[in-house]
């Protein structure tokens, strides 16, 4: 189980640490009383010997003294020896070892996971190492300081995981935070060596050369550095000049209008708020009470907020109740498992999706059936053709990269889709069961919409075109959590027997690919621009 993907387990191991502190205290106490006893004995023996010295040779004339010396050298010293030999604090040590071996205790991979999560936050929200190191996360001050060694650890992992920009800045921060003293002397060459590697990866050859000189100055005897430096000079082969400087930025530039970017980049820029809908795109959006889909709603209309018209994306406010959330939390306790993603032919644990989740059938509790009746009222869909209820919890750094909820044909063909007879996922209802302190929004890069989790609200969108073809514009992802914990519930509605339920659309949305849709949009925009000129 991964430590970093769940706040709820962190709370548990945090409690274990409290116990570990108790055992450590007990260990110290036990050893302390042993040491106190030995110290007292030492002093007694010294006093007795001092007295003996004062007597001089006459000391041994007294049978009493002879006895006392013998007693000391046999029984008393034996006691001391025994005591010195026994391992005090054995019991607390054994208990400590037991807690440390608990299956929930984080392992080295979890430590790496925590750093990985931190680097993800840094990448997505474009944070600076120097801010993170002083506990400043996206404008909020957590007043936690990282020391030089922490920064070096992070730099190491950043470089290993192919983030040379971040490795560069974390190394600089590690240098910045070097204290005076022996430990720092040991760290400095390690940091410089890492900085050299980062600069090499970034093509900053002049900077690299300078850092090498510095490194060779403090560790002139290191054959390894000298060898590396030689092979570096050799590799340059005259092709690249040592004067080649490169200004190193901590993050890649924000793309300009019209630049082609990767899907992941689009997801990140939506999470960080760099992609937003334009006022023009928002102009036609409405919000208000909705009472059309079901007569029940005439009595209790839904508060709906349109976030996109095409494709449709609606946020419903206050559609789940605290009592229901309480029941859900009880139902899901101890059932959460690390999330997987579906790769070509199997389900795998992946860093693309760091959360924990579980599925519950609607029959598990009447609360789930109640929720489904509400979803049916909201969406007008027949909830008989829906998957089991999915509940997910994201911890700090937890996220789910950009994806589409609908399945590609190859997934059906490979038998990876549960209940394939119910068809594809025609629509999604995503309930927010918690607020999130910082980060953790749901990003729709193509719509440039960022939904901030709002407890009791639910997002609703159609995944498929009215034709049944998957709509790539519905691509979305869960942004990493900076602080807090996020709970969501997914209702994935399948297309079977819904053909009469989906509202009839007046616009042609049956285009299959994003390229085709963008092409059409371009044409429409050109037409609108032309009509404005005329
Ligand atoms: O948690 C979120 O914000 C989105 C979750 C999601 O997209 C999914 O589980 O498919
Ligand atoms: Fe999704």
UniProtKB/TrEMBL annotation:
It is an enzyme of class 1 (oxidoreductase). Belongs to the P4HA family. Its main location: endoplasmic reticulum. One of its GO terms (cellular component) is endoplasmic reticulum lumen. Residues 385-495 form the Fe2OG dioxygenase domain. Pfam families: 2OG-FeII_Oxy_3, P4Ha_N. Keywords: Coiled coil, Dioxygenase, Endoplasmic reticulum, Glycoprotein, Iron, Metal-binding, Oxidoreductase, Signal, Vitamin C. GO terms for molecular function: iron ion binding; L-ascorbic acid binding; procollagen-proline 4-dioxygenase activity. It is found in: Endoplasmic reticulum lumen. Its cofactor is L-ascorbate. Residues 28-55 form a coiled coil. This is procollagen-proline 4-dioxygenase. Its EC number is 1.14.11.2. Catalyzes the post-translational formation of 4-hydroxyproline in -Xaa-Pro-Gly- sequences in collagens and other proteins. PANTHER family: PROLYL 4-HYDROXYLASE ALPHA SUBUNIT (PTHR10869), PROLYL 4-HYDROXYLASE SUBUNIT ALPHA-2 (PTHR10869:SF244).
């Amino acid at each position: 189980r991964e430590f970093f993907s769940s706040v709820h387990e962190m709370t548990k191991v945090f409690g274990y640490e409290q116990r570990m502190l108790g055992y450590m205290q007990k260990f110290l106490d036990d050893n302390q009383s042993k040491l106190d006893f030995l110290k007292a004995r030492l002093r007694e023996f010294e006093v007795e010997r001092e007295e003996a010295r004062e007597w001089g040779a006459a000391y041994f004339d007294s049978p009493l003294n002879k006895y006392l010396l013998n007693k000391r050298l046999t029984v008393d010293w034996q006691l001391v020896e025994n005591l010195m030999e026994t391992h005090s604090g054995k019991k607390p040590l054994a208990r400590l070892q037991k807690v440390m071996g608990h299956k929930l205790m984080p392992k080295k991979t979890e430590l790496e996971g925590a750093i990985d999560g931190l680097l993800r936050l840094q990448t997505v929200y474009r944070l600076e190492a120097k801010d993170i190191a002083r506990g400043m996360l996206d404008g909020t001050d957590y007043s936690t300081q990282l020391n030089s060694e922490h920064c070096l650890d992070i730099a190491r992992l950043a470089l290993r995981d192919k983030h040379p920009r971040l490795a560069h800045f974390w190394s600089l921060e590690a240098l910045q935070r070097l204290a005076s003293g022996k430990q720092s002397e040991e760290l400095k060459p390690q940091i410089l060596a890492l900085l050299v590697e980062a600069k090499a990866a970034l093509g900053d050859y002049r900077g690299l050369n300078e850092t090498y000189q510095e490194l060779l100055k403090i560790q002139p005897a290191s054959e390894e550095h000298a060898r590396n430096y030689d092979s570096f000079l050799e590799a340059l082969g005259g092709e690249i000049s040592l004067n080649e400087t490169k200004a190193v930025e901590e993050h890649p530039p924000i793309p300009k209008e019209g630049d082609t970017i990767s899907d992941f980049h689009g997801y990140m820029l939506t999470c960080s708020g760099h992609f937003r809908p334009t006022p023009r795109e928002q102009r036609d959006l409405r919000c208000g009470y909705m009472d059309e889909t079901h007569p029940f709603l005439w009595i209790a209309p839904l508060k709906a907020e349109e976030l996109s018209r095409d494709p449709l994306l609606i946020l419903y406010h206050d559609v789940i109740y605290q009592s229901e959330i309480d029941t859900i939390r009880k139902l899901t306790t101890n059932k959460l498992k690390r999330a997987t993603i579906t790769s070509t032919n199997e389900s795998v644990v992946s860093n693309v999706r760091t959360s924990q989740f579980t599925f519950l059938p609607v029959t598990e509790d009447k609360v789930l059936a109640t929720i489904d009746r509400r979803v049916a009222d909201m969406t007008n869909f027949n909830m008989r053709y829906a998957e089991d209820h999915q509940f997910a919890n994201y911890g700090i750094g937890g996220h789910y990269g950009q994806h589409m909820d609908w399945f590609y044909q190859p997934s059906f063909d490979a038998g990876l889709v549960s209940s394939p007879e119910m068809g594809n996922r025609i629509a999604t209802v995503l309930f927010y069961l918690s607020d999130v302190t910082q980060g953790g929004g749901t990003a729709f890069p193509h719509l440039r919409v960022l939904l901030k989790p709002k407890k009791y609200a639910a997002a609703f969108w159609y995944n498929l075109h009215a034709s049944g073809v998957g709509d790539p514009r519905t691509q979305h992802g869960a942004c990493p959590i900076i602080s807090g914990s996020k709970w969501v519930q997914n209702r994935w509605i399948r297309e079977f027997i819904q053909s009469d339920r989906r509202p009839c659309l007046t616009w042609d949305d049956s285009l299959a690919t994003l390229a085709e849709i963008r092409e059409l949009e371009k044409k429409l925009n050109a037409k609108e621009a032309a009509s404005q000129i005329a």
